[in-house]
Design a protein that fits this description.
Length: 490
């Protein structure tokens, strides 16, 4: 049986003016561009005409599937708030994931219509020679993953608020994200087509899988965010994104270790560690700022047995349990970097410089995320304070990094102007591990402060674990009482 949201959204999308106007307009524009490329051949060599035509058509396709389709998904979710139909969806007993997935599948089918419409133009470009079929297939698969990922991000942004004025701001943010994604994708395609990969080595397949995984990662996380935002306040809207994020982190770490084992890279562990630590901090920001207590409905679903409940605690809602999950994520990243740096080494040798750099950067991440929550955790029961914390923490982090550079410019401190100051974690990390020990004292200070933050966060984590342990005990008591009640009723 088809997802009812999929059927509903397909009907409204295909009958709406948005698709009926933009679909033929996009195809007409692509056809005009293709004619211009074929007619004006002065700037094209005969042996690269097919490649140049494909690149032009692919840019039009990307604009459609990573621009128009995500906007359609954004408007689809926004209509639920504007037309007050979300309450009807809740009454229909559809799960939040079904609602979000149905809308995403509708956007995916809309994207497939664009793919099918552009197929004749892409096939014609192949017939003109200058591009191989392997490159065409790989780029089309990448466009499909990018379309699904950006559509999920659009759904997540549209689900963040019911207020129209806020959604206008979110729509502007979405436009900026999609514009940057299109610019980056077209630059990547231009570089790739100049030296396409033959896909005949293990390293090529490793790169492909890792690239597609990184493209799909934001979409999977956004889908989890959208489904959690559609859930009732008493429902468990946190476990699914926590489990999904942890699984994706383990997958990416495994891929990175596998790729590094095959061909060690000089600074691969350092770059991987920094990117994953920043991604983990942004995602875990939503978990550490959740309200502390479990809702009554979630307390009834805590796993039976106190040992099982404690093992599942990091994936249950709650800010203290979110802090525990954040620490576990940081430990996983540091362990993977240690395996790469010490186990296989970089460039064939054993070195700990990259691990030192990543460790210092991890200390800064713990401080920037954990320190504000030592005070802010008192007000996480208020939704407005949770939203304020989720905005102030990343904004404050950016200000602490860039404001000293501005101060250095004003007071003539060239080193600060070059972003070489104690509050810039990247510079301190590089100086401590890779480029020497000029900032060793700063690195040690960051690790010490991070250790204090961890120690001061222990009471909050212990309270979160204690609540889970109590809820598990209550569920065990209810289970033991059921046979007695059944016997009395008999």
């Amino acid at each position: 049986m088809l997802n009812p949201i999929l059927v509903k959204e397909l009907r409204s999308a295909l009958r709406g003016r948005y698709f009926r106007i933009l679909f033929p307009f996009t195809l007409l524009s692509a056809t005009v561009i293709a004619v211009l490329v074929l007619v004006d051949r002065s700037g094209f060599r005969s042996d690269t005409l097919g490649r140049d035509l494909f690149q032009a058509m692919y840019a039009c396709l990307l604009f459609a599937v990573t621009g128009l389709v995500p906007f359609s998904a954004f408007l689809s979710m926004g209509n639920e708030w504007d037309e007050h139909t979300y309450d009807l969806l809740v009454l229909s007993r559809l799960r939040p994931l079904q609602i979000a997935l149905g809308k995403l599948l509708s956007a995916g089918i809309e994207g497939l219509l664009y793919f099918s419409a552009f197929t004749p133009l892409l096939v014609f470009a192949f017939l003109l020679r200058g591009i191989d079929i392997t490159s065409i297939v790989l780029l089309l698969v990448g466009a499909w993953v990018a379309s699904a990922s950006t559509s999920a991000v659009a759904l997540a942004l549209s689900s963040l608020s019911r207020l129209r004025i806020v959604r206008v701001v979110l729509m502007a943010l979405l436009a900026a994200i999609l514009f940057g994604a299109n610019i980056g994708a077209n630059a990547f395609v231009d570089d790739y087509l100049r030296s396409p990969s033959p896909m005949d080595t293990v390293e090529d397949w490793q790169t492909l899988i890792l690239t597609l995984s990184l493209m799909g990662l934001p979409g999977l996380l956004a889908l989890a965010v959208a489904s959690s935002r559609l859930a009732h306040a008493e429902e468990n809207a946190s476990t699914a994104p926590r489990v999904l994020m942890t699984g994706l982190l383990v997958f990416l770490l495994g891929m990175a270790v596998w790729a590094h084992a095959g061909s060690p890279s000089r600074h691969g562990p350092f770059v991987m560690g920094l990117l994953l630590l920043m991604g983990v901090a942004l995602c875990d920001l939503f978990f550490v700022t959740e309200r502390e207590s479990l809702s009554r409905r979630v307390r009834l679903l805590v796993p039976q047995g106190r040992v099982r409940a404690l093992l599942a605690a990091p994936f249950l809602p709650g800010g203290g349990r979110g802090v525990l999950l954040f620490f576990l994520h940081v430990v996983l990243i540091l362990a993977a970097v240690a395996i790469q740096c010490v186990g296989w080494g970089t460039g064939g040798g054993r070195t700990t410089g990259e691990f030192t750099s990543v460790g210092v950067f991890a200390a800064y991440v713990v401080v920037y995320l954990g320190l504000p929550m030592l005070v802010g955790s008192r007000w996480t029961d208020d939704p407005r304070m949770r939203l304020l914390l989720r905005v102030l923490i990343p904004v404050g982090t950016l200000l602490s990094v860039f404001v000293p550079a501005l101060v250095g410019f004003l007071v003539d401190l060239p080193q600060w102007t070059r972003m070489e100051h104690p509050l810039d974690p990247v510079w301190v990390a590089v100086e401590c591990g890779i480029d020497g020990y000029d900032a060793r004292a700063l690195g040690v200070a960051a690790v010490v402060v991070a250790g204090l933050v961890v120690l001061l966060s222990v009471p909050r984590v212990v309270r979160g674990l204690g609540e889970v342990r109590t809820a598990a005990g209550e569920r065990d008591q209810r289970q033991r009482a059921l046979p007695a009640e059944a016997s009395r009723a008999a």
